[in-house]
Specification:
Elements: H1 9-18, H2 22-25, H3 29-38, H4 43-53, H5 58-77, H6 87-102, H7 106-116, H8 122-140, H9 148-169, H10 176-214
Helix pairs in contact: 1-3, 3-4, 5-6, 5-8, 6-8, 8-9, 9-10
């Protein structure tokens, strides 16, 4: 998995300032320079600080923005009642809580996705998504260490990506349509999981029977 981007209080604070300027200026140093200038920096010092904080430019800022949202998931997991939920309920709470936190910055999210779909940013896109779903499963209590570790994350990557795209177009009150969409996707995953369990059980039984037949008979 791709390593997380550099983390620092200065970078986090700079992102918080820049977010308000991303809708007008896009992701990149221009948004951050505008934010720093608004905070009282001279034009030259704002330019230098923007380049020092995010030397990778726009994609560096986008990856850090996603990582900041990943770290905020711990806050959702610490909310009262979270630990009492079943695993699927925890996943739902984490995904919807994340989207609620991002709601004031919907245009910034839209612009970030527009950058991540570019072929040259495929590595950042894949790494960021992998870290997000891994953190969701971790906070939901997943402790698997076998092949299901990979399948669970691959499935959730599809569910989360589809839900995020749906959320960007959702104008329902309090995101009710997005919550219903996520419920349907998670229900579908549950049916797949039950079917997989039955198939694995049948295969296991057949393999067990085959091994018994292959055992040499006692003389």
């Amino acid at each position: 998995m791709r390593a997380a981007p550099e983390r620092s209080a200065d970078r986090d604070a700079a992102l918080a300032l820049a977010l308000e300027h991303v809708p007008a200026n896009g992701w990149g140093w221009r948004a951050l320079q505008a934010a720093l200038s608004e905070a009282g920096h001279s034009a030259e010092s704002a330019r230098l600080e923007a380049e020092l904080l995010f030397p990778g430019g726009a994609i560096d800022m986008v990856e850090s923005f996603i990582d900041l949202a990943d770290r905020d998931l711990a806050r959702i997991a610490a909310e009262p009642g979270f630990a009492d939920l079943r695993t699927t309920g925890r996943v739902k709470a984490l995904v919807l809580g994340r989207l609620a936190a991002l709601a004031p910055h919907r245009e910034a999210v839209r612009r970030a996705l527009g950058m991540l779909v570019l072929p040259r940013h495929a590595g950042v896109a894949a790494g960021s998504l992998a870290r997000t779903v891994d953190e969701v499963w971790h906070l939901a209590g997943d402790a698997s260490a076998d092949f299901s570790w990979y399948t669970k994350r691959a499935i959730l990557a599809g569910v989360y990506s589809a839900t995020l795209l749906y959320w960007l177009r959702d104008d329902s009150a309090d995101g009710a349509a997005t919550a219903a969409f996520l419920d349907r996707r998670l229900a579908g995953v549950g049916r797949i999981g039950k079917l997989r369990g039955r198939i694995e059980a049948r295969l296991g039984a057949r393999l067990g029977a085959l091994r018994e037949r292959m055992q040499p008979s006692a003389s």
